[in-house]
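STRUCTURE:
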């Protein structure tokens, strides 16, 4: 699949540039400029519209769902089960961990869990490094299982990836979860911002881009069909084909942006579960991975 995407990139580039050069500048410049304008305008409007759409509609829905997730998560049981599975020699009960987790003013929760565990089981039996990995894995699995049932797959993937890359996100989430100075909704609002806002806004932005790009290209096609019948450009044949090829470069760039954003949308909506449409597989491409890694620039 990696080879197919790279071949597709090269094929699109060569075909679009060649076909435009063959037809000549006079026949393609209006439609080619339409591609450029459609891409830039759709990108600008999507960048402006996505945050507004997220704040106005999607955010409240996400916060409400995260509040439901929080109400169904039982962290004391999740962590007690994970710790007991290590067979440190002493059984730890969930109710014992509840007080430890709620004491968020005295350091990060995983440090407090470690200190409590060694106080019960003994320091010689508990390796701090492996203990921290157990807690992180239990957090992603336990919270993620509930999250995955209620929010889109791309939100879960963002959550899991961010926690793996930066365990501080896990600590911040647990701190907000046990901050009883805030209401359930206020806690959900803060937690949602930690892992859900960014991927949700990105999906909205890609959708807006694709919709606007399609609309603008229909308009460009109509204008091109009207204008190009009335325009005559007096240049020699060689220059005409060369200039057509230059327009083809712009058009090919727009088509490749469209391809990259479509693939990105498939990856996010599927949660990377498709065999070839996932970040690991796409990183193995040579040409396409450059476009994919710089997706934010394209938007």
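SEQUENCE:
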């Amino acid at each position: 699949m990696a080879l197919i995407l790279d071949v597709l990139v090269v094929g699109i580039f060569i075909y679009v540039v060649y076909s435009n050069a063959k037809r000549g500048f006079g026949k393609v410049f209006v439609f080619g400029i339409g591609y450029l304008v459609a891409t830039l305008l759709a990108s600008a409007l999507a960048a402006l519209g996505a945050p507004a759409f997220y704040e106005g509609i999607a955010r409240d829905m996400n916060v409400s769902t995260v509040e439901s997730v929080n109400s169904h998560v039982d962290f004391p049981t999740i962590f007690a089960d994970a710790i007991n599975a290590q067979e440190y020699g002493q059984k730890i009960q969930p109710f014992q961990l509840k007080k430890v987790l709620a004491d968020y003013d005295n350091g990060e929760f995983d440090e407090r869990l470690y200190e409590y565990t060694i106080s019960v089981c003994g320091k010689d039996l508990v390796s701090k490094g492996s203990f921290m990995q157990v807690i992180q894995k239990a957090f992603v699995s336990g919270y993620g299982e509930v999250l995955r049932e209620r929010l889109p797959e791309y939100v879960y993937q963002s959550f899991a990836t961010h926690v793996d890359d930066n365990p501080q996100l896990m600590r911040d989430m647990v701190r907000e979860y046990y901050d009883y100075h805030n209401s359930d909704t206020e806690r959900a609002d803060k937690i949602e911002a930690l892992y859900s806002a960014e991927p949700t806004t990105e999906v909205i932005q890609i959708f807006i881009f694709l919709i606007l790009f399609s609309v603008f290209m229909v308009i460009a096609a109509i204008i091109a069909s009207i204008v190009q019948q009335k325009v005559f450009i007096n240049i020699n044949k060689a220059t005409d084909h060369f200039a057509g090829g230059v327009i083809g470069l712009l058009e090919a760039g727009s088509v490749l942006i469209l391809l990259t954003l479509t693939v990105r949308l498939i990856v996010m909506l599927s949660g990377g579960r498709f065999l070839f449409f996932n970040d690991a597989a796409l990183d193995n491409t040579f040409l396409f991975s450059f476009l994919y890694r710089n997706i934010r620039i394209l938007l």
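REMARK: The chain has a mean pLDDT of 91.
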